[in-house]
Batch of 4 targets.
Target 1
Amino acid sequence: MTLDLSLLPDGGMSWLDASGPESDIVLSSRIRLARNLRGRAFPVRAAPEDLMIARDEVLAVTNESAVLHPVTMFRLDELDLLERQVLHERHMISRELAGLERARPVRQGAALLTNGELAVMINEEDHLRLQSLRSGFDLERAYGQLERLDSEMGSQIPFAFHPEFGYLTACPTNAGTGLRASVLIHLPGLVLTKEIAKVLQGLSQVGLTFRGLYGEGSEVVGNFFQLSNQTTLGKSEEDLLDHLATMVRQVVEYEQRARVVLQREAPTVIADKVWRAYGLLRYARSLSFEEAMNLLSGVRLGVGLNLIRDVSVYTLNKLLIFTQPAHIAEREGRALSDPELPISRATYVRRLLEEDAERRGPGGGAD
Amino acid sequence: MTLDLSLLPDGGMSWLDASGPESDIVLSSRIRLARNLRGRAFPVRAAPEDLMIARDEVLAVTNESAVLHPVTMFRLDELDLLERQVLHERHMISRELAGLERARPVRQGAALLTNGELAVMINEEDHLRLQSLRSGFDLERAYGQLERLDSEMGSQIPFAFHPEFGYLTACPTNAGTGLRASVLIHLPGLVLTKEIAKVLQGLSQVGLTFRGLYGEGSEVVGNFFQLSNQTTLGKSEEDLLDHLATMVRQVVEYEQRARVVLQREAPTVIADKVWRAYGLLRYARSLSFEEAMNLLSGVRLGVGLNLIRDVSVYTLNKLLIFTQPAHIAEREGRALSDPELPISRATYVRRLLEEDAERRGPGGGAD
């Protein structure tokens, strides 16, 4: 295993440190800009040698980037499957760049540059995907950083740009601003009060869309939703972000209101639910990823409601990432069989929760 | 509340102290003898004044009993409903004597005499029910004690006895020896391996019968079964007891074998099951009696398999008794509403398990 994520600040996980605004409900804010090199075929159509040329052209600039400094690079076409899966599970690269789709293996010249919060994916669907990822509900600061990176790079690399359509992209749905912003948000209150369908429908009517934890087509587990803008064209970056931020702020309010209702109408049912989830995570000997996500959702709600004080939000965030298959295999130092995986997952979950409970001392869970 | 069970050795619960043989599988052994006063109408047909006369006739003897000494008396017709329920839940009196059946209120002159292990119920279905109750699988010693009581009383009270039919009883199924012996046994292994139906069918073919935790007609919860002899006539007391003991010994062996198989074939499934049960009991905020029984069954299996070392069998036994409605109301000092009951139950379960875990120190549950 050559992958050394520890070179990154906090292993590239600072976006999960729960330091950002509203971080018990909004886990993270992410913005990406799709950019392409002027006069070069999009990666999906480019010949291998062109992909390498495109990559080197970008690297020549990024290696000197003041905004990215200090930067770490991963050449994905030199990493094995497990290493690419780890990067994907850590939300650092897309499934596409990781080459995880059966029909589309990892692309030659595919690379990731990152300093933890800012990243550049090279030879994804587009030549460049600039990305900013921050803890909590913090789109403004995320965009501030990303804009600096975009300006710096745009001043040195001629991007494919059309005066009428804006930035050109491999997929027309990304053209224009090339901007996609999303927040990863935890909505157990709206799910429990059965208002979630109405809320999601409302969002789709104002041009927003939702997905599960792991990008397009991924299922919603553990009441975690990624909310993002649907359109990229015909509006300025600021307008798109303002619109998303306004809507997310409203969803956060709905969620908070739902939690108040639950606490008022069914305090015992809620307390029972969140503590049972905690009890199962503390003691189960086998956990599927889906069950772990659902139980973590319960515990997160309990922490948010101040019922459970034994666990930090950071630990809950870490568990979202480190209970995934590639992370488990990496920790065990080998590929695990299907029956071994849920056992190792449960062992890890127990250890982290026990450590938290010990750190917080006895009585931390009393209520 | 006038009921003072604390006057009894360990509150009349010594049969639950897990000190007897095989006490992780066989919770207790109980034998009762049905006896009636010669020349007096059976209680079900007696006039109130005759019931009082019968009672006083028995009390004159039991008050001086050397075998029962020191004895505590409860006049059931002077206790309120909750107090009678507590005695019933503690397995000290039958539903009939407690007057818990809607159609049959408590009978005048109904009384209980007990020294903890030996007891005499007065004016139950029969004038006298002599009873011996011991921890674990210990029919022999239970009968030894009971025989001494029976001889002592029989020498002073003329019992209704027919040279051909033996002891006469209100219900003909009890005539002859008047003996019913039973063991309370925990068979989660046979339930999990799905062999239980076969085993129970085999028992019925050799004249044994089974019921749930609380006597005739009570449902099986938590994999606890009461196995007892069906017939009381045509065999000597010793033969009846030998037969039951032989069969129970075999069932205990089947259960042990089933546990070995489970541990060999599905160790993770079993460990996961018992630890999840423990986790839920440690943290749930609301527990129905049935769920509590089922979870306690899981934990008991874990303790029996030496997977869980945080809990004593005695604590598990106590929880069987003290999580019942009347015991909860007694502890809270008032009648509880339907929604309050499961909350109070869960609080009590948590407290006892926490105390056990603290007593055993950290690491007791590690494996």
Target 2
Amino acid sequence: MKLIDGNAIAAKIRDEMRAEIEKEGIKPKLTAMLVGNNPASAVYVRNKQKACEEVGIDSEIIKLEESISERDLLEVIRRLNEDKKTNGIIVQLPLPEQISENKVIEAIDPLKDVDGFHPINMGFLLAGEPRFVPSTPQGIKELVLRSGYGFDGKHVVIVGRSNIVGKPLAALLLCKDANATVTVCHSHTKYLNEVTKEADILVAAIGKAGFIGEEMVKDGSIVIDVGINRIEDKTRKSGYRLVGDVDFDAVKDKVEAITPVPGGVGPMTVAMLLVNTVKAYKMQ
Amino acid sequence: MKLIDGNAIAAKIRDEMRAEIEKEGIKPKLTAMLVGNNPASAVYVRNKQKACEEVGIDSEIIKLEESISERDLLEVIRRLNEDKKTNGIIVQLPLPEQISENKVIEAIDPLKDVDGFHPINMGFLLAGEPRFVPSTPQGIKELVLRSGYGFDGKHVVIVGRSNIVGKPLAALLLCKDANATVTVCHSHTKYLNEVTKEADILVAAIGKAGFIGEEMVKDGSIVIDVGINRIEDKTRKSGYRLVGDVDFDAVKDKVEAITPVPGGVGPMTVAMLLVNTVKAYKMQ
């Protein structure tokens, strides 16, 4: 069994980005909007900023009150769309309930939409001509490729149909530079075990700790675990630990390769955001 | 075996549209652009116009020279985007080679894009909030539903990953009002027979006459044949006949239901264009 080291691969991608930015003498800028006081969101945004600094991307965090109106938030986005110094714009989700996430996503200039969530970027992806691909699907693709595996003719089974992972990943792997056979499963899928057992590459993006057991995985397959779930652990100071959607210990001796949680898909998501920001700079 | 009668179902949809248009006293208008002298394109456009007339939708065909420049075609589209009388705009494909199909599709106002090919409409579909769905996928969905079958928890296997059928159909059937498990296969798929044999609902959209044989189909499944292929037939005056991607005679005794070619998916495509045109009128 090969452990796919997301930390190492993400570090390599950051190295490549740093080298490219230095060599070309460019100075891309990412602006992140952080609304309210969600502590997890604050951590995510800080991690993104840290990664930007590490590779030479300017970054700015715009902190906005929890009580901000939708209209005022859209006005901030409009100004950033016009700001020539800002190449990439992200809005950390979730947003307070007075604000429509869809309206916010649709307000971002598609050429600065480095999260790839704008419907026109989703559409380019489905049409097989991706511009900005959401970070997690793109990170999954890179993890597999940089571990020495390919997608051509492989049966990829994705469990979970979110707009952030499952569906854009399906579209990405159907593109002609990947050429995978793709199945998307979800909560309504019958005989899920039988479907997942067909997978050469199984992607778990469900949000349920240890959901994928030994009986759901094919011998010699590659397993990508997107889940990040907190479970109680009294042996830890924090009182909890992070586990994936895959029952790692049950599955590990059966598979060709697997990503750990943490240290698998997670670090790739931030790395691919940097890649998209450099791409945005070059497209503008 | 039940023969799914696309002609009858399409006629019923046209009846519903006619009743709705009369009852609401509305007058939607579809404008079709026909570039050059492709005889098949001329037939398609005329059929669409005929269907419009039948239900009370105004229609106009703008005929343009084969030699028209991309710039001039885009200018025509720009005028139609602004024309308040035009609710739906379609450009019959294929286009002459001096013109980029993507640029033309992207030039159409997404609110008038009744073919649903604009990337933003593809993106809304992938995100699970469809506005305009391309006619063929939407027609396939209606065929199945109106024949008394459902998609929830069913495994739908789609053979073919085009932007007009395979990929938008996958996105459509992953939406929460359908809830299918969806697999997309294509020319790079290995062990295709094994994958198609898993299908509760098999959709063939490959463009190869009689490609789907008995050994590829599960007992009691539903088979939707999107292919329209000409094959030589000396017993016909025309010298050819139309067949689908499915070997109908080989498969028919095995399945629960199947669409014929012609008279299956084909007539639905035009009917769903009418549905989209009425929807466009109401959205504007």
Target 3
Amino acid sequence: MEQTKKFLLPESELPTKWYNILADMKNKPLPMLHPGTKQPMKSEDLYPLFAKDLADQEMNQTDEWIDIPDEVREKLKIYRPTPLVRAYNLEKALDTPAHIYFKNESVSPVGSHKLNSALAQAYYCKKEGVTNVTTETGAGQWGTAMSFASKAFGLELAVYMVKISYEQKPYRRSLMQTWGAQVIPSPSMSTKAGRKIITEHPNYQGSLGTAISEAIELAMSTPNCKYTLGSVLNHVSLHQTVIGLEAEKQMEMTGEYPDVVIGCFGGGSNFSGLAFPFMRHTIKAGKKTRFIAAEPSSCPKLTRGVFEYDFGDEAGYTPLLPMFTLGHNFAPAHIHAGGLRYHGAGSLVSQLLKDNLMEAVDIEQLDSFKAGVLFAQTEGIVPAPESAHAIAAAISEALKAKEEGVSKTILFNLSGHGLVDMTAYDQYLAGDLMNYSLSDQEIKDNTENLEKLA
Amino acid sequence: MEQTKKFLLPESELPTKWYNILADMKNKPLPMLHPGTKQPMKSEDLYPLFAKDLADQEMNQTDEWIDIPDEVREKLKIYRPTPLVRAYNLEKALDTPAHIYFKNESVSPVGSHKLNSALAQAYYCKKEGVTNVTTETGAGQWGTAMSFASKAFGLELAVYMVKISYEQKPYRRSLMQTWGAQVIPSPSMSTKAGRKIITEHPNYQGSLGTAISEAIELAMSTPNCKYTLGSVLNHVSLHQTVIGLEAEKQMEMTGEYPDVVIGCFGGGSNFSGLAFPFMRHTIKAGKKTRFIAAEPSSCPKLTRGVFEYDFGDEAGYTPLLPMFTLGHNFAPAHIHAGGLRYHGAGSLVSQLLKDNLMEAVDIEQLDSFKAGVLFAQTEGIVPAPESAHAIAAAISEALKAKEEGVSKTILFNLSGHGLVDMTAYDQYLAGDLMNYSLSDQEIKDNTENLEKLA
């Protein structure tokens, strides 16, 4: 009998509801605090910044399931449901008894899972009559997603793109412009936050934290404009749960259930999207599954950060969030996985890690590219440098299974492809990339002045 | 009821046989001639250059169906069957009564349909014990496909890449190298053919014709080495028929049958792959369907070329083929659709055009990019500059339907995505691209000394 490689769902199986893990968590995250008053915030307090529906989703602790609007589902059908794939060729190359599956989010027309939330956010903005939106982007995956989503729902978009990525990934800028967005390298002179950091650090290559400050400032000073964000927040993770909900049905088709679920980790969106739907069976039914977030060694908030209140951005415009963080002024090394260069983890993941419902591992840059090239040469798909971190973690689990002589079912999220990141592969193949280490002292310096948790 | 956007086939519906139109053609193409003796060639005469099975397929005029080896089908499953998609959003933007469908070959991990034949060619080479293969590539789509295919079957590959594309599309080079291939810009100093043209034309930016000469020369002078080609030849079109065979089943799922089938046209591989399976119903059952090849105005072999015997390459190493051609020394303008910059059309398509079983249209560069941007903004996928020619032709047909107030079912091949061609879109958006015209005198000068047909 022939082996099935790709497990496909028809469009009729596209989820109709998102899964809201916040409703099921026994220990809810501490509330976000107003940056000025330090008082707990309500969803109304977020209305000036976010579309109302998104702000309400952010704070929703009661509804386990939230309807996906038909208009969003129609657009999701451009690429969803995405395939679940058995990585036979990778298994063979590793000579492992483990079964390795991956959810292939790279088939999205923008090249990553980011479109799942971009379409939802653009829709809710349009629905309340907003005409302009702003956002930031690191590697450019979120920015490209938001560009197409804005075009799809008829919104004008301005994107602040981290300067180092703007230079490393010119094709991303072109993509955003092809979909009609305006792209500004950050830090820029167009905002107070940008001008301040340029003045203080003339050669600053940018960070997601700074780009967020700029995008928020522009949104707050533009009429009929909202801000959108591609990770970290609860509502973003919520929209991403279509990944895990589809994967759950597809794993049923394989006749297996994952022992390990892996996602790379920047702010939490793709990891959460795959993991949360499976985690609900752990929370509610005691199902034994390991959930592993794979972060870069150079930006190790989950493995080496502190758990405190911190800002989501560099300038301190956002609410204070309870998070594992390296400090909002942390400037990560210039690794190519731009989407993972963020100082903090979302509140949901931070709480789940604290409650031992999940684990985290750190991956060196060279190990991530080694894994990425092996994956490209076996499974054909050149992974995004971010996704290569998940692959490296999956390979490590598969090799452990081989060492221990046990079978094991591993599921990871291929959050995106790397076709627009070939400069990074070029440099890796030429031997020009390096690992980056971070001293305990650096982490201490960046985190010792944070707002303490109550 | 919800609209279905993507029509999907399970892996079990992946074709088990290729469709060989040569067996069904009433007028067979004239035989290929030996470049020295001018005598008709047999498949054995091609054995030094091509794997035996491929040479036999090239000459097979009797078998309507040819088995796809299991080893090839296993690798095809990495991305096949590919989706058939209803372009609702494009239809809406055009306000047309036409129904527009496209076969989405861009989901291949190398980004185009080229992998369909690359996997077959690499397999047959491996099967007969070959260790090294050579090829050429224009835009880089075929080269990337052959790079992954060679890695998948354990072959060493050298790719001659047209110099202008090598410079315009650096990411393509990186992709080929990530999959383990050696990439040489053509014309190069590594072959007699390359040295000759460099000497005669010091600033020559290369052409597919020259790159083919170089790849053939390297194959012939390397032990245990075969040459592979991505288009033009019968066996390449044969391998591509998986596209149309799947599309046929998928059109049945829609309840419609195409009135018009469209593919962009360089040497014929993607056009033939989609069109031939539908054309068999025209040949065998008189089904009324229009088949349209969309070629660039700057390289108009089908619409303005002559039908004569000509070489497939610039140096005259290949057999003489009966083809619509602009002359094997024709140096096409530097349009970004590098895959369409080829002087001649394959013998099958040339004969079918002569017999009025199909049509051809020419598309200006600016019209192709305009169509490409509209497609990106509506359907989300940034098309390859080559595929944008097919989109432009489909849009033209859809607008005609609107003008005439008739419904019409249009099917085109989205042969690949343009994520690695963003430089081209950048230049288009900046207003830096232009159309190229070709005078009758230029065509006459290039074609008047060709070998006359018998």
Target 4
Amino acid sequence: MTSGPGRLRVGVLASGRGSNLQALLDASARPGYPAEVVLVISDRERAAALDRARAAGVEALFVNPKDFGDREAFDLALVREFTARGVGLVCNAGYMRILSVAYVRAFAGRAMNIHPSLLPAFPGLHAQRQALEHGAKVTGVTVHFVDDGPVDTGPIILQASVLVQADDTEDSLSARILAEEHRLYPEAVRLFAEGRLEVVGRRVIIR
Amino acid sequence: MTSGPGRLRVGVLASGRGSNLQALLDASARPGYPAEVVLVISDRERAAALDRARAAGVEALFVNPKDFGDREAFDLALVREFTARGVGLVCNAGYMRILSVAYVRAFAGRAMNIHPSLLPAFPGLHAQRQALEHGAKVTGVTVHFVDDGPVDTGPIILQASVLVQADDTEDSLSARILAEEHRLYPEAVRLFAEGRLEVVGRRVIIR
């Protein structure tokens, strides 16, 4: 992959298949993209995300939650690993653990999450199923900064809408939302790397 | 306006300027539109909505809340007026009172509301301001059936998204949402009049 002294160093937390990680890895490989993923950490040893990282020549690290006494001790280990690599932004990509306040504070204003709904609608798990069960006709995707509030509450960086179709299943809707996720997450990281995001209260202003 | 024996007779409740009422009146005047507004009721004597109705040759009625002992008695008067005109659908268009359970039950499955957000996000008053203060990048409009839950909870008929722009004020955002409201409300009434809406639990299936 392309490397450069001026590029933002990005760390990624992933628990699963890592398709959003792949979108960030692909973006990192594009000429002129101002950020590069330098470390992927997973709390699951067999996460496909780790294989994706290795395949892209990016360091992949399994950190075992069982090696730590509590969530905060585990999270502080993540902070140490990212910090040791000079990471300037951390991105959750299908990371299935709640982050402790200590982690969020360590990366205040430098941690992003992506969520498969138009927040504040349908926070938490199974957002696509929630949207279907609610009978929503429009849902979408949100990239937001992570804050120390409840789940999925931080300042919103980018959103895109996705229409719910009459015959949608959870899978078909998730697939169309995922396509938007793969477009939006690299774009949000690019804006951050270019210094174009300013947080004013709850609002993210794009310069 | 065009009248016809087979057209759905629509009643409208409005408290204010009635721009959504105007969209329904304009639709009623279009050849082939399967519904017609036959009665507009306002709880405010000077509501511009009443003038709009009269200008379109539609009966306009001021019903004074002060003439009734409580909300339910007032609402039952509204039910009587609509029922006496053979109304098959009632639409809130900027109606600023909470509807009593008695009203909602009388028109169960035959009462619609329009709300300037993508519900369930930003229910209640000042939805556009809520969206701006939350820092949402996408908001929109929802037409839904009225149910006897809390405010703005009924099954969703149609939604459309509206992008929040960086320099949006409450007024500029409201204006763009309103343009979508004027498009969506007549469309929802048309689908209802054509018998194409089926409510299954919380979901509205469009046939």
